[in-house]
Amino acid sequence: MIELFFQYLVAGLTYGAIYAIVGIGFNIIYNTTGIINFAQGEFVMLGGMTAVTLHGFLPLPVAIIAAVLITMVIGGLIEMTFIRWLARPSVLRMIIITIGISILVREAALLIWGEGVRSLPYFTGNEVSALSFGGVRVSPQVIWTIGVCSVIVLLLNLFFQYTMLGREMRACAANREAAALCGIPTKNMVTLSFVLSAGIGALAGCVVSPITYTQYNIGTGLAIKGFTVAILGGLGNSMAAVAAGFILGILESFSIWVLPTAYKDAISISILLAMLFIRPSGLFGDREAMRLKDF
Amino acid sequence: MRSSRLTPVLILLGAVTAVQLLTLATGKDFYLTQLTMTAYYFLVVIGLCLLMGFAGQISLGHAGFFAIGGYTSAFLTTLDVSAYRDASLVASLAKLQLLMNRQDLYGAQVLTVHPWAACVGAVLLALGVAFAIGVPVLKLKGHYLAMATLGFGTIIFSIVLGTRRFGAADGISSVPAFPVLPGVSVSGGSSGRVLNYYFAWLLVTGAMVLLLNLINSRVGRALRSIHGAEDAASAMGVDTARYKLSTFVLSAALAAIAGVFLTHYNGGIGPSEAGVMKSVRYVAVVAVGGMGSLWGTLIMSTVLNFFSLRGYFGTFDDAVFGGILILIMLFAPDGIIGSDLRKLERKINPKSQTANFK
Predict the structure, then answer these.
(1) Between A99, A227, A260, which is nearest B325 by CB?
(2) Nearest by CB: A93 against B136, B150, B329
(3) Is A37 in a helix, a strand, or coil?
(4) DSSP 3-state assignment of B335?
(5) Can you tell me the distance from the alpha carbon of B227 to that of B233, in angstroms, rounded to the nearest whole number?
(6) ipTM of the predicted structure?
């Protein structure tokens, strides 16, 4: 029984790590633009799919790096084509545009890769290899997933705290006009935020691919989970998104005990709705902090 | 209803008749099947048009209301209760004439809920759900509203997909014909094709008249003021919360009615009808139609849905709708024919005001 408990816990942490990364992706773009990018989940799918294809003729690490770079370029191109030149678009317009983008990306993926389910090979070991922690068996890929996601979060923090570029992005998030007056190219910062969130999404898509598989249509589901996490933590607050990601992952994982698997997705959405209705500022955010919007 | 508003309605009826005669003359009367389905899809779109274009609230969950209507009606009219004939509930329902004895596809006698009773039940359920969801959801704005309605749609989708009683991935099939009026029965057979076509489009015309009167009344002006500036409307004494909720509930009811009739017409319903992509399509059609131009939406909805149902877009079906959505929002957020049509409307009826979407 106790082993089963830990087994669910580990599964929850794995999914939670991915949700957290998608949630952070939402936050990065939201912070610089005030836009919720409904195509966020598509970056995860693109990363996984591209890596699987490249792995056909490249070694795994090279394929993953290349896939992340390609997705970053796509993310940047999407921003430059569809968003950069719009003057003060309304929120409703942006919602509809990013939904349209997500449909186009998904349909393009369907055209390129078909409906088949693909996956990368396990980074170390294979499907059956497991590390044992006192009776709890953990796949090495789980360690990879949680590890890579932790490194992403750490690097992002360092980037936003200590690099000039990161600080410029934060300035842009805090007050766009003031940032522009200080000579920060705010439009480039927005493009950069798309590149960055496409990159981390793609990397997450690669590490999780051996466990959850990759299919052309996984984006929407991930986007909803990621948004739930972003809201749960408080929109714009990326460290809180990590905690919220783990909370959601674990809740979902344990919900299998009480509910049929088919309803698993309904759990996270119910949490999302409940949060939106009761406490839209998030578990950790208060309304004052929401207004200051710092990374 | 003033004559300036009556003219387009008469033109619509004329066009509906002309199209039927045209298909008859050219021997393409099988087009009527898709045109009938188009009419039902338009019922969903017109409600959403009122909600988005006039009240200014987005909903990415209207396929959910369509599915509530369709699935409730399909479930009740295919559920054989003849084994429980003696149970008090079934007996009292039978006494109220709410049940119907009929033969199923294999010739066996079954006792099911009468389609009219199922239809009323379905619409009431949709109204109830819309009310329960609408109260908290409509307090939200922008992204939160979009995500909350998207979430609602996804919950409905995962419920119908995950429930074996609703046929899981296969949906519910062999839904019986719906005897709406003496002599008129909503079903997919080719014998009743013309009759069904007229029934569907008369339903559309009725809904059109209803909504046209609504938007040109005090309610319509209140809705437009909410779209323009909610705080200002509220300050002027418009009960914004109530108006938004009523519009939401009305549009949900229209979607549910469309679901009920289309399910009987197709003889079944599948989970894809509840999918997020369907909701997005409805939004796309409203956007192309000019966000708040009922006539523009009618034209675009008919054209797009007809092409889509005839399979002209092939495997690019969803991509076409996604592409349209982006192009319209990037280059013409007022819709392509919407703005021209609005000028025309103003010419015909200088007093008519339509919402601008920026």
Answers:
(1) A99
(2) B329
(3) coil
(4) coil
(5) 9
(6) 0.83
